[in-house]
Structure formats: structure tokens, C-alpha cells
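ok, trying the design again with the full structure, not the truncated one.
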């Protein structure tokens, strides 16, 4: 049977780039993992093997490192925008560029011994420790006219040790779960939000401030919601971000329920008054949903939070 070529793309994945900005004795770190995917007039390379329209993936890798020097890395989003614009506008066969970036955060190491003969607590300007809280992510797509920026985070583990219940659910002959009126609620947040910005004629968001504020509102909503279900908490987290940040129209969450079950201590003659739990890593409930500004059509792919 005859065949035709379908959707295709190519590029260089997981280019690890670390940019050190030296402001006198004070240093700043941006640590990124950058993946480039390009698409356009690529039929010939698939049908005949002609590379006439192919920009080598090694060139895309080199561009990432050169741009880190030439433009610096103000934010993951801004860096991705520079790259996407370059690939689409400099190469006629390339019609769309998609840049995915993970950012790994670092924080300064502070010394507690201000009497150290080597360095004082207020002088630690070039020593860092990798943050283990979450990984910041972004995806920038550009087709020569319109932009789409989807940012977010993954692996942000949060817990409420109380103010969470789960009861009143459907029960059948296979149900063994006991209703809980005071339980631990814990999850590992993966979230992606879509910015309203889509054109060079529009004012670009402050990417760093927007990320910090979205994360802050997400955590505040998690902490302040008296939860009757993880779904309810998810919706409150998304609503808080949408209502607080006008530059964000849509946010998608994937929240695995990190179950904590009370341990039965009665065989040992002990009472477990919501103190000792067994942390089960699998299987786990997986709660996923999108929260949108009213009147907005969803655009974040359902599998985005797995990236």
C-alpha cells in the first residue's frame, strides 16, 4: 500500500548549559537543560535522503551555547524565545521551532561561622547548593507569527498534615478504604500554565516575577484550603493563580496522591492517634485537571504535564 509522510520534527535534545554571570565578586547561576525541535519543509530528507533543507542538529547545539554567551540567560522563557525566533527567521525551510527548557535552581551557601578566617557569612557570593524542591520548565513554540509559551514546574512535593478529609464516596462490594475525617494530604505537583502573550506587538510578561508569583499563589492555596478531596485542592490552586495573574489564562495539573495510611498499632497495645503513618509510593491515585479563565478555550495538551 502507498504511504505518505506525516507530522515530523528533528533537533538536539537535552543540551545542558550552565551560564555564570560575574557581577564583580558576586556570581549568578542559570542552569538549563534545553531541547530544540524544528519542523518545516522536510519531505525530501525523508523520501530521498537529501539534506538540502536540514540544519544539522549539531548546529542547533552550538547555537544554544553561543546564545548563552551572546544574549545571556535572563530567564528560561526569554532564552527560549531568542532561540525559537532565530531558527524560524534565519532558515527558510524551518517553519516552526519548539524549545523545551528545564531549569535547575541553585541557592547560595551561607556560613554560620562569621569568625572564620577564610570567609564571613556576608561574603558568600560564589558558593551554591542545588535546590531540591522542584524543577522549573518551559516550552516555547514559534511559527514565524504567533508565539505560545507554556511554563510551569514539576516534582514539587507538598504536604498538609491535617485539615484534609475524604468521606462520602461511592462504595461497592470491592471497597475497603475507610472514611477519613483527619488525614495527611500529600502530592508531587506537576503544573503547566499558558501565557496570554502570543505576539511581538503585545507587552511581554516579566517571566521571572510571573513564575515566582504563580508558585507562591499555588502553595498558598494548597496550605489554606481545608480539603475534602484532592480535586477540590487542585481547583483552588488553579483558581488562585488565574485570579491573581492576568498574564495566565490556563493551568493544567497532574497531582499523584502520595498516600499515607495510619499504621495499626493495636497488636502492640498502642493507640495510634493520627501520629504514625505508612507512606505508600505505589499504586497511587492520579488526579489531573485543567483550570481556565472563563471564556477561554483549552490549549495545553493533556500529556504536557508528563514532559
Amino acid at each position: 500500500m502507498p504511504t505518505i509522510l506525516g507530522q515530523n520534527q528533528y533537533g538536539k535534545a537535552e543540551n545542558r548549559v550552565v551560564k555564570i554571570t560575574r557581577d564583580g565578586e558576586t556570581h549568578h547561576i542559570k542552569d538549563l537543560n534545553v531541547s530544540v525541535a524544528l519542523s518545516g519543509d522536510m519531505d525530501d530528507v525523508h523520501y530521498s535522503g537529501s539534506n538540502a533543507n536540514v540544519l544539522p542538529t549539531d548546529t542547533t547545539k552550538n547555537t544554544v551555547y553561543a546564545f548563552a554567551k551572546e544574549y545571556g540567560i535572563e530567564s528560561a522563557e526569554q532564552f527560549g524565545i531568542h532561540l525559537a525566533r532565530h531558527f524560524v527567521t534565519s532558515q527558510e525551510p524551518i517553519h516552526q521551532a519548539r524549545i523545551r527548557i528545564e531549569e535547575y535552581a541553585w541557592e547560595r551557601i551561607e556560613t554560620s561561622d562569621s569568625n572564620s578566617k577564610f570567609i564571613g557569612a556576608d561574603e558568600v557570593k560564589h558558593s551554591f547548593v542545588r535546590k531540591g524542591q522542584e524543577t522549573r520548565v518551559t516550552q516555547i513554540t514559534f511559527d514565524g507569527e504567533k508565539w505560545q509559551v507554556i511554563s510551569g514546574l514539576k516534582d514539587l512535593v507538598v504536604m498538609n498534615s491535617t485539615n484534609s478529609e475524604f468521606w462520602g464516596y461511592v462504595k461497592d462490594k470491592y471497597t475497603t478504604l475507610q472514611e477519613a475525617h483527619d488525614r495527611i494530604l500529600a502530592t508531587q505537583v506537576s503544573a503547566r500554565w499558558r501565557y496570554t502573550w502570543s505576539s511581538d506587538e503585545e507587552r511581554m510578561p516579566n517571566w521571572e516575577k510571573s513564575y515566582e508569583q504563580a508558585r507562591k499563589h499555588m502553595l498558598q492555596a494548597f496550605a489554606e484550603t481545608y480539603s475534602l478531596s484532592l480535586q477540590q485542592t487542585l481547583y483552588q490552586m488553579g483558581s488562585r493563580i488565574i485570579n491573581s495573574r492576568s498574564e495566565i489564562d490556563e493551568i493544567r495539573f497532574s497531582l499523584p496522591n502520595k498516600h499515607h495510611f495510619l499504621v495499626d498499632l493495636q497488636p502492640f497495645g498502642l493507640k495510634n492517634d493520627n501520629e504514625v503513618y505508612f507512606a505508600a509510593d505505589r499504586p497511587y491515585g492520579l488526579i489531573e485537571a485543567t483550570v481556565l479563565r472563563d471564556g477561554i478555550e483549552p490549549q495545553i495538551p493533556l500529556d504536557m504535564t508528563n514532559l
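Keeping the full-length input from now on. Helices lie at 43-47, 57-70, 76-90, 207-224, 230-244.
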